[in-house]
Amino acid sequence: MTQTVDFLSHLNPSQRQAVEHFCGPMLVVAGAGSGKTRALTYRIANLLRTHRVHPENILAVTFTNKAAREIKERVEVIFSEQQAQLQYEKPFSALTSPEQTKLRSQVYRSVTKHLWMGTFHSLCARILRYDINKYTDEKGRQWQQNFSIFDESDAQSLVKQIVTKELNLDDKKFEPRKVRYQISNAKNLGLSPQAYQRENPEYYGRVIAEVYGKYQDRLAANNALDFDDLIRVPVELFQQNEQVLAYWHQKFNHILVDEYQDTNRTQYDLIRLLVTNGEHPRSFKNWKNRSIFVVGDVDQSIYSFRMADYTILLEFQQDFGDGLADDDTRTMIKLEDNYRSRENILEVANQLILNNTTRIEKVLRPTRGEGPPVYCYQADDEAAEASFIVTQIKNLTQQHPELGYGSFALLYRVNAQSRALEDAFIKSNILYKVVGGLKFYDRKEIKDAISYLRMIANPSDSVSLMRIINTPRRGIGKTTIDNLVNASQQLGVPLWEIVNDQDSVNTIAGRSAKAVNQFAQMISSWQEKAASSTALEILEGVMEESDYILDLSNQSTDEAESRLENIKELSNAVAQFQEDYEDSTLGGFLANASLASDLDNLQEGEQAVSLMTLHSAKGLEFPIVFLVGLEQGLFPNFRSLDDPLSLEEERRLCYVGITRAKEQLFLSHARERRLWGYREPCIPSMFLKELPSDLIQGYLPISQPAKTPTPTPKKAKKTQSKSNKKPSKVESFAVGDRVLHRSFGVGQVTHIFGNKGKISIAVKFTTSSPKILDPQVVPLEKL
Ligand code: ATP
Ligand code: MG
What we know:
Blueprint: H1 13-20, E1 24-30, H2 36-49, E2 58-61, H3 65-88, H4 97-110, E3 116-118, H5 120-131, E4 148-150, H6 152-166, H7 176-188, H8 193-199, H9 203-221, E5 224-226, H10 227-240, H11 242-251, E6 254-257, H12 265-276, E7 291-296, H13 311-314, H14 316-320, E8 332-335, E9 337-338, H15 343-353, E10 365-366, E11 374-379, H16 382-399, E12 408-412, H17 418-427, E13 432-434, H18 444-457, H19 462-468, H20 478-491, H21 495-499, H22 502-508, H23 513-529, H24 535-545, H25 548-555, H26 558-580, H27 586-595, E14 609-613, E15 622-627, H28 644-658, E16 661-670, E17 672-675, E18 678-681, H29 686-689, E19 696-698, H30 717-722, E20 738-741, E21 745-755, E22 758-765, E23 771-773, E24 781-782
Helix pairs in contact: 1-2, 2-3, 3-4, 5-10, 5-27, 6-7, 6-9, 7-9, 8-9, 10-11, 10-12, 11-12, 15-28, 16-17, 18-19, 18-23, 18-24, 18-26, 18-27, 22-23, 24-26, 25-26
Magnesium ion is lined by residues 36-37, 258, 619.
């Protein structure tokens, strides 16, 4: 008999319904903190437990790798709780800790190790490690399974080389960072270099297209992919090769996606292909033992600059639900209770987001009691803002000894804001960590070590080879390296083939020939050993043999000491990886390492205050949150000030920030701020003026008339104030209508949301990304 599924008692009826829905499509839409991620987690446990789905058949996409790990841990606990009852006839909590550990590790080995869970990037990298050799790009180029993943800094240095060395252009005019950004956008829009040039025929566009073409050549020559390729390539591969697609379609019977509102078109295509095996979603009927389950919140869509498009979420029902209406509850569930935030915090968030016109109204009820009022502080400048925060943290930790520093988070709009805050923490001896700052894997010594490993795994990776050929110094000079590189370019072979060929080296490397040959011998002996050694053995071996460790030890400075420690930490990471993953090969570890973000290292219970940007805070929660720098031009960001849609995205970002707080929220703004080297007077953020003043203590710039807190949002203030306006032509829009917008151009209405009082319409534009617009606010001409 199946064990009673009592773990589902941790869910409310709507969550339970979502979790228990077995086959077919299902969309969960709900506001922040309403238990969407929890529902997704329990659904995985339920699929495994109740429906006996094999973990290998589940694909779950999360926003960070850390979120994936947390979900895995949670699933383990759920399983262990049940197992405890079976094995020991006691609840899990009543077991001794060795018994608990034993149970957890049994579950771990048997279940969670086999789940396919992670970000789009890490899952795609895993798929490609099986099948990339079956892919051919439009120029007939191919990749091998040991491909390297170039991160942003590798990609930028490649662009820089092309701009300055190959094309001899001025890198002031063609800044590598900007050029790389353009290339990335083109890739995300599915534009080839030729297509990009057709769309941008002017000089600047032509140059970008040329760099883009050469950049792609270089990636291919290095047997490497960048982050944009990681998702695009599997999509193209699935479109090219029916058998490959059929294999993955059959494997992943149950697909789950968290934060679905921030999915972009390529990611959507990937999901769609996997679910329907290439059939059009609307005609796909074969839902036996198969499901697609997505959760999201349009009010938290904050990644449009990375081409995220929340109309994908809005189209879910029409798409996978075979044309069902948007509010058809057969394939859609709403969650309306918030379990995260105190009522005061939630009400502030609810009121703020009502100022957005392009949204779908929803209910979000508090369940956790009122809590302390939200506090707003006006500081003289950024230093005063920081010292206010330090004082609050000190007071609160004194008053509530159970609160460790790990209970606090500071959220800001741009990374540059962290410096002033860090100064204050250093002065007052408060432990803190900047999340998403310089990533562990971006540190010099870590990049060096990883480059050694990449060279061993993928000899075509010339970027890594260039990095380590003379690191540590082994007497291979710049001229020699230039000669070697020239030879490789002229012969059209990877740099390694030249470096590893004694005759060539002896001819062109002059006095450095001996050093080059020795280096090549060392690397090639590790390449031979790679198949029979673990990733950890290779790392430790090559770091010793290359004299990298010796070189650092000889320096005997604090800095060198800390670099040595980081290398040790990298060994720990490799060891951990070998324990956690089925694929513990060098290639597997490298894919994982290039995709790790600092966010992934955020340990629960760690006693340091977290500092991070609002974008990184998505999906997270903290007992106490400080939302800082609420100033016009900073937050909302100046670029959004004259663009209503960007401004709404900024407001959503603010909504995300507010709703991270569980117990208490502090808002702050400064009258003057030094940022990026300038000291400037600041005006309080317009968002502050939109908050309900009766729920806020401290200084609010312009108070509004007091409002009684309402547990459920009723009507948008903007809508109310506009309700006297003529209803205009709003009701006359219908799905299929062609419309014209002043800046977005011509488009077609794809959805109409809401009812008479407040209507939003979704429009697919021919030359801009799709938008949801309030026709009462945004002028649209019907064609
Ligand atoms: P976000 O939109 O910010 O991603 P979310 O909808 O994913 O939020 P969760 O993170 O799943 O929300 O849940 C928010 C908090 O509420 C978590 O601490 C979670 O453990 C808790 N929670 C969720 N569902 C319930 C429930 N039914 N009973 C009690 N607590 C719950
Ligand atoms: Mg969530």
